[in-house]
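Hi there. Long-time user, first ticket. I'm pasting a complex I've been working with (about 947 residues overall). I'd like to know whether the download I got is complete or cut off, because the file seemed smaller than I expected. Thanks.
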Amino acid sequence: MFGRQFFIDPSRCIGCESCVNACAECDNHRGESMIHLDFIDRRQTTATVPMVCMHCDDPTCAQVCPADAIKKTEDGVVQSSLKPRCIACSNCVLACPFGVPKVMVRQEQMMKCDMCYDRTSIGKKPMCATVCPSQALSYVSLEEITRTRREKPTNVFYFGKQKVTTKVQMMIPEFAQAVSVDVVDYMWEAGS
Amino acid sequence: MAKAPDDLAALTARYGPNPNYVPAGGWQKALDSPPDRLVKTHCCFCGQQCGIQLKVRDNTVVGFEPWEEFPFNEGKLCPKGVKRYMQNNHPDRLTAPLMRTADTKSFRETSWDEALDFTAARLKAIQEKHGKDAVAVYGGASLTSEKSYLVGKFARVALGTRHIDYNGRLCMVSAGTAYKLAFGVDRSPNPWSDIPKAHVVLVTGANVAECAPITTDYLWRMRDNGGKLIIIDPRMTPISRNADLYLPVRPGTDVALMMGLLHVVVRDGLVDPQFIADHTSGFEEVEASVRPWNPQQTAELTGVPPDAIEKAARLFGGADRAIALHARGIEHQSKGVENVLSLINLCLATGNIGREGAGCMMITGQGNGQGGREHGQKCDQLPGQRSINDPAAREHVAKVWGITPEEMPQAGLTAMEIMEAIHRGEIKGLLSICFNPLVSLPDSNYIREALEKLEFFGVVDFFLSETAQHADVVLAGSLQEEEEGIVCTTEGRVVHIQQAVTPPEGARNDWAIYCDLAKRLGKESFFPYKAPREIFDELREASRGGPADYYGITYEKIDREMGVFWPCPTLDHPGTPRLFEGGQFFHKDGKAKFIVADYRPSGDPVGEEYPVFLTTGRVVSHYLSGTQTRRIGALVDQYPEPRVEIHPRLAEAHGIQNEDWVKVTTRRATMVVQALVVKTIRPDTVFIPYHWGGGKSANQLTHRTLDPRSKIPEFKVSACRMEKAASPAFPSGSKASPPPGRSQVAPRRQLRVIQ
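Hi, the file is complete. Here it is re-exported in full:
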């Protein structure tokens, strides 16, 4: 959309929750935030992670939906469930590897971040990426982020044996040789 | 007389703090009826003064929209800015003046005439009986500059008292005093756009992520440009994670650390001899004073490793362009001025001042922390940042005001000293606006006793703060969005606050309240204003020729140019984003002064009985005494109650676990507060945020030692002891729960990134 993409950089997050608060101001779901912020381990560190929908190329939430209620737009934005179809079963909530969708009890519907479709479709930045004071959430061109940041973007994630590619990119250290720390990922198991 | 009313529970039910969760008319109405207009203005919280657009419908603020064109913050906001609109149309809002009932045990709503007549009569009676100076006036640094100017003029002209001071006394006075001593003027010399251009930025005593969140963006850009970030703080604040060097200073030893850094800079020949010779005086004395502070000795006092001191000094001294950023951490001390002077000495010695990307910069705390101190509500200053002791300044301002220089009162007492004078019986009447001393001043039991000794206490406010509960009269004033005016941001940029809405029926504009009081005191002719613009035009004249010269600034010019940096002496002057260019300082000889600063122990020393340092500060979702933010639901949820941060090592020694209740005792008082056990604080130090009142107030514990020059209280260094508390109960008996986000220890999902 207008050449800009969404980038998350948890290393720059200051945990202020401006994004979470601003999300709840959207006219489509006022009073309810569609995104969340995690304190990784407050005892050890001030580190926090803001989490918007990653907008997977092949969304797990849609794969597991028994009502075929989760659709992607042509430009790759995974939307909230279709209200007439959604049975609020929470399959998507359990399946999403990033912990994004929520079932809104009052609406009896799964709702999630749609990257502020109302704003991005008219050339504005998503609300959270507009207000974020610390560059943890950014909506800029790939060229600009590559030129201005120390970190590099990636959109490939592994969850066990599942490889997930996403529209939203995560900034990782420039020289990171990112390695899984879970021994299971290096093991051979019968039947795998 | 001014005891709190008996029916506090009923008062709280009506006047709060009650958290507001929905905008005016509810969420659905917000969806059904779009806003009438968007008003480009600024956030009401903090000295960053971010640009924001307020959505207005039916004379009510119902939401916000980022203002991406405003250059300082480009649409960015912290959660306080996002939710600030929730203070408008708030159920707790005062919509009529309050007076005590006949038995003085409660409040009743009354008419404006009765409240104003009573206030004026009481002030007059006290002054007639005990002299002009028996009445004091308090102002606040969240007021616009017009209101700050008016409050100062009201005290000096309408009341004729010399005792006028403001809550900026708890904020910027150590920095201001030090800058005036060293540079001859009190302002951050560099615009924020200089930060990304620095090669090294040293941040000391500043929790940027929580107290000035927008500044984080500038620091990250500096790092992206290859710059190095040094953080000095007893706590590993959120931005410390990305620091190139983190120095965990022991509370109260900052001046020693600065001298240690300068010691290495001098030893290694990293000073700028040409700059020192051409543009400064007094270096030899400072050089001699840092000689004993070798890294080993500095380390022993400060708790910072010698090699980290060496590294920091070499980074800062070796950079072509370095910036030192500082805030209340080093300033809220009984040697706050010396702490800042020692940092200035480091900048001067290395020639880091008055250039692009090089300077010493203070981060302003309050909304109009900068402008609020420039135009006359500070006890020793007249408009334009003029000294009240300077005969020429007195003459100029007296002429603008239409009085004689002899009628101009002399310098009065500072905010904390006014409380002491009330205790001594010298001050018997107090009129206060925009100040909640019962929460924000140290040793709150002492403050409460002072309020109870007053013969008359009048308060102008929009919410019934903890302090206002002690008043005889509460005059229902206006919110920031209800009056036009200007404020000066942390950068020295003067910006325009637009009136988005009018005050609700029954509440009045602050400036009109003061004009009406002046009229009742027989001084109407000196207060003829019909709008804030007329006050501003007089302020421009009054500031003309002073260090903070606003004469060339107009509302229209601000709107056109997205703010104007002072000094701006003429209408065609472009303003002054960067001070001291070419090494020209504001002292008569044009030079900056090195001033010797030395280490002294805190006024509340840690020892056997009280072995742990207590330090206080802010959290990201609250502002100052919380009068506004404790009434905004989303901000309350984010941090509902104070918690005491304790390192696991200290916690284990006391048998304390996370979320346990802890009794914290100082030489003043005891409070019971829930533990937040974290490795992000020195094990010899605990931290409690100060935004709450009553039994939850951290300022029950703090002490009244003042910096001898700036008269700032030593909030950042107290001595305390701790013990695990038996039962989870606040003295106030209110419900306590851990902050949802802050206490979360388990990750929701483990996210791995594999290439």
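A couple of notes from our side: The mean pLDDT of chain A is 90. Chain A touches chain B through 59 residues (CB under 8 Å).
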